[in-house]
Amino acid sequence: MPDVHVTIDGTEIAVPSGSTVLEAARIAGIEVDTLCDHPAIEPIGACRICLVEVEKQRALQPACTFPVSDGMVVHTRSEKVVGARKFVLQLLFSERNHFCMFCQMSGSCELQNLAYKYELDHWQFNRPMPTYAVDASREYFVMDHNRCILCRRCIRVCDELVGNGTLGLKNRGADAVIIADLDVPFGESSCISCGTCLQVCPTGALMDRASAYMGASDQVERVKSRCMGCPVGCGTELVVRDGQVIRVEGDWDAEPNKGLLCVVGRFDPQHEVRERVRKPLVRQGDAWSIADGEAAYGLVAEKVAAAGDSVATVASGFVTLEEAQALGSAVRGRKFYMYDLPQTDRTATMADLDEADLFIVTEMDLSLDFQVAGMAVKRGVRKRGARLILVGEGENGLADWASMRVGRADLAKVIAMAKSAERPVVVSGPAGLAAAREIVSAVPAASLASFAPGGNGRGLCDAGFGQTYAGDAAKVTVVVAGETSQVEPGLLDALKKQEFVVVVASYREPWDQVADVILPMPTAFEKSGTTVCADGQAGQVVAAMSTRVPTLEATIGMVAEAIR
Amino acid sequence: MVLEQTKTEDRAAFDEGPLEEILDSFSAQEGAVIPILQRAQQAYGYLPEEALRMISKRTGFSLAQLYGVATFYSQFYLQRRGRHVINICDGTACHVKGAPRLVTTLEEELGIKAGETSPDYRVTLEVVYCLGSCALAPMAVIDGQVYGRLVPEKVLKLVRELD
A378: nearest CA in chain B? Predict the structure, then answer.
């Protein structure tokens, strides 16, 4: 698009036509204060903080939505602008309960920051102080309507990014309130608790139960890392205070998730209830004793040395590429992956999901597994009008988004529809892979996005763990579990039959049912390494906490030392 | 909240037929939420939860969006209304000419407060502020029909005559 010339605070710059005044100001390096605006979503001009003076315009205009035109002259800090912003802030503060000293967001609040910046030192208007209910019906975060400024960021991320469309606004004017569905408690609504609204809330209206009052923005560090929970491989920002991760947020700059996370990746680590393994544990009958390091590593060394090549090593998706390589070179015997193997004939990236005009999801529920991929499907249907066909019976959380549901027998119909689509993408888990491949091979335009459980399945395959474990007999079975909690009962049954089972794990459960020795292992917050996502892209896991738990490499070294 | 007040047995009786026709007639139009809600309300007398769910499913508008529209405009009702709707005007002129007495009389007669519907869904009683017929004060509109220069006896007679 051709450039237009605008003058902002005396600086003349050329910006693409169609830009907003806010975008133009950013290009010029001029900061304009905003509140309802968020880079990841469309601007709506709701809060009026970004008001600027545009010459030849009758009134002040919101920079976030006002388009530039050639020759436009804008003033972003004139007396009139500053006065208007103060007035807007006074109105915002007068509406509900904004007594900052009681709020967990004090120190990190965008509204409070603006109040300091514009030197609000008193309430200019009487406060009606309405009292709204606090909705604590969700497990991980709480909504306090009394602190809400109705910026609608939450509504917009739920609609535009997550594609869930749970949130809305009821009533009008000062009586307006954020609602879920038909004004039901959030915990009973269609909300999937992904927490994206929590991450974008500029005030303390949405409160994370785990990290509330744990640290303001200037007391914490942020470490960019990667979630190892599933092969979508979302980029995370670990919020750290005093060496502890207090909260997980989505990294807005990261592919493939662009700031989104699912309930598991965002909240589960902070709500872990299983007992941590910090010292080696040795089974004594039905009881466990904390062994001193040497005894436990000695016992393992003795068994491994006696087993010769009859060692089976089973790795979960929480094992990094580097850890897998260390295992590969140190441990003899066969190497297995704990779950169904990831597929390398996959051709679709997450970016392809965002361009698809037809989604075909075979035999999987994307509302339960690989949720961030499910969000791409939902927003495609909601925002771009893409169609969704669900193949397979049974309950499916995406049923409300689907334009058609067919049985496995009706694949011909699906193939016919896929042929008439421009960019069909087939999404499948292990169960629906055969059907997915049948569709993809019949439709040249179709691409395949397959997901298998476990975060680093691709990396483990590359490192030689390219076989699914099926209870193969060995004298010593080494399970490298990390923080895995999703374990098939079949796996535990198979392990119970083995002669000697060593589990290297962060948590005791469920391994205390099957192991003879449990050795400690760092969590994904405590180690650095590489994980390979489902689409083959490598991501860096970065340690955000230090730990006295030995690294896997150190554990391998101690066992090797004991053998010698 | 509001929806809970509709009794369960009434919900079970929800007839999809009329809404099906309405939705079919708008199927080619995008963004026709307000006319769809208006027509649905004409058909059912209010906007039952089932109707909102069906509209959401067929149009792709989320439940929250529909609820937002339905609560933004005062013309929409989320509670089942009576077969007869009485609007008593309590604008300035009607007020000074005795509208509050009409309201109290009807509240006593019907055993409900202004803004409520009788439990048998016979009558909904509402107070409105100026219907633009101040020369007829105090006035009321009953089922769309204007009645002026009312006194308690007269309004009682009118309401008792309703079936």
Answer: B60
Question: Do B50 and B93 reside in the same domain of the chain?
Answer: no
For residue A167, give the nearest of B2, B64, B71 by CB distance: B64
Q: At A1, is the pLDDT very low, low, confident or very high (cuts 50, 70, 90)?
A: low
> Judging by DSSP bridges, how do beta strands B84-89 and B123-128 pair with one another?
parallel
The full DSSP string for A212-252 is TTS--GGG-EEEEEE--SSTT--EEEEEEETTEEEEEEE-T
For residue B9, the distance in angstroms to the closest alpha carbon of chain A comes to 19
Q: What is the pLDDT averaged over residues A24-40?
A: 96
Domain count, chain B: 2
Give yes or no for B65 touching A (CB within 8 A): yes
Distance CA B130, CA A145 (A): 34
Q: Which two tokens stand for residue A85?
A: 């912003």
Choose the closest CB to A166 out of B57, B60, B64.
B64
**Out of A171, A179, A400, closest to residue B64 by CB:** A179
Asked if B141 and B107 sit in the same domain, the reply is yes
Kindly state whether B71 is in contact with chain A, defined as any CB-CB distance less than 8 angstroms.
yes
* Section A524-540 average pLDDT: 94
- Please give the C-alpha separations between residue A529 and each of A341, A407, A416, A504, A543, in angstroms, as whole numbers: 21, 42, 44, 17, 8
Mapped onto helix, strand or coil, the DSSP state of residue A481 is strand
Judging contacts by C-beta atoms under 8 Å, the chain B residues touching residue A168 are 62-65, 67-68
Read off the pLDDT of residues A469-490 as tens digits, 9 standing for 90 and up: 999 999 999 999 999 988 888 9
Q: Are residues A138 and A244 in the same domain?
A: yes
Task: Judge whether B5 is closer than 8 Å to chain A, CB to CB.
Answer: no
Query: Is the predicted pLDDT of residue B4 greater than 70, yes or no?
Result: no
Q: Judge: A183–B2 Cβ closer than 8 Å, yes or no.
A: yes
CB A314 within 8 A of CB A472: no
Chain B residue closest in CA terms to A164: B62
Give me the total of CB pairs closer than 8 Å, taking one residue from chain A and one from chain B: 45
Residue B148 maps to which CATH number? 3.40.30.10
The SS3 of residue A349 is: coil
- Do B148 and B110 reside in the same domain of the chain? yes
Residue B2 pLDDT grade (very low, low, confident, very high; cuts 50, 70, 90): very low
Check whether B160 has a pLDDT greater than 50.
Answer: yes
Closest-CA residue of A relative to B49 is A182
At A320, list the tokens. Answer: 């990094």
**Residues B95 and B155 placed together within one structural domain of the fold:** yes
A72 contacts: CB under 8 Å, gap ≥ 6:
A4, A6, A7, A21, A54, A55
CA gap A158, A394 in Å, rounded: 26
Number of domains in chain A: 4
Q: Which residues in chain B are contacts of A171 at CB distance < 8 A?
A: 71-72
Strand partners, A424: A358
Q: Which residue is closest to B68 within chain A, CA to CA?
A: A170
- For residue range A410-431, list pLDDT tens digits in order: 999 999 999 999 999 999 998 9
pLDDT higher than 70, residue B77:
yes
Task: Decide if pLDDT at B3 tops 70.
Answer: no
**Chain B contact set for A170 (CB, 8 A):** 67-68, 71
Same domain, A418 and A552: no
Residue A546 exposed, middle or buried by CB count within 10 Å (0-12, 13-18, 19+): exposed
Tokens encoding A272: 């872990």
A244 pLDDT more than 70: yes
Show the domain range for A45: 3-77
